Amino acid sequence: MKLIVFGATGQVGLQVVKQALWRGYHVKAFGRNVYEMKIEDDHLETIKGALFDEGEVLAALEGCDVVISVIGGAFDGADKARSLGMKTIVSQMPKAGISRIVALGNMSILNFDEHSLILDQKDYPEEYLPVGNEHRKAFEHLKNSDLNWTFLCSPDIINEGPTGNYITAVDYPPKPNKNHVNAGDLAQFMLNEAERNEFVKCRVGISAL
Q1: The whole model's pTM is what?
Q2: Given this model, what pLDDT does residue 77 score?
Q3: Mean pLDDT of the residues in the chain
Q4: CB contact at 8 A, 91 and 110
Q5: Closest alpha carbon to 83 in 92, 73, 93
Q6: In angstroms, rounded to a whole number, what is the distance separating the alpha carbons of residues 135 and 137?
């Protein structure tokens, strides 16, 4: 399998790259600072590029089988990296002949009940609304596309490796929900999903056990 990872230098992105290489995949790491990655592997290709440049994104996508998006950004949502970055990726994937994407978002866009999202509740913390709305827009780009997407909705992320001890649920937070999960376990789930296609066109809540 040949993957491209957007957001490869972040805490989850680095875990995705390392675990994908361990599984024997060819990995393209795309971003502005990818040359700073201290990973040497014959199956790793670093591509310096701008997420908002459609031409650079399309060129990087060529020849890939699956897209992994773990795009980060400012906590206040000011840089629009998550939403506009996803918009660029989604628009260019069909041109490259790719239909499969596994992306990372935030637990706030899971369902609170049948009629509303967690993000839309009156008691949702106001300081988290900007980044939550960035994740919402990113999800909407996926949902409105013809792609085979999976959107993993994470709680607080602990910068630790994989344990395999986590629980998932479709569209809702899992029960029990500890409101945190390791970066390595997010990466593990995303790579497993890229292989198994168990949650296509689903949001998936996740938590450490």
Answers
A1: 0.96
A2: 67
A3: 95
A4: no
A5: 73
A6: 5
29-81 residue pLDDT tens: 998 888 888 899 999 999 999 999 999 999 999 999 999 999 988 777 677 88
Q: How far apart are the first and last CA of the chain?
A: 30
> Phi, psi (5° rounding) for residue 148?
-90, 90
Written as six digits, the tokens of 41 are 């592997």
Q: How far is CA 111 from CA 106, 116, 136, 157, 196, in A?
A: 12, 6, 12, 20, 24
What average pLDDT does this structure show over 183-195? Answer: 98
Q: Which CATH class is domain 2-208?
A: alpha beta
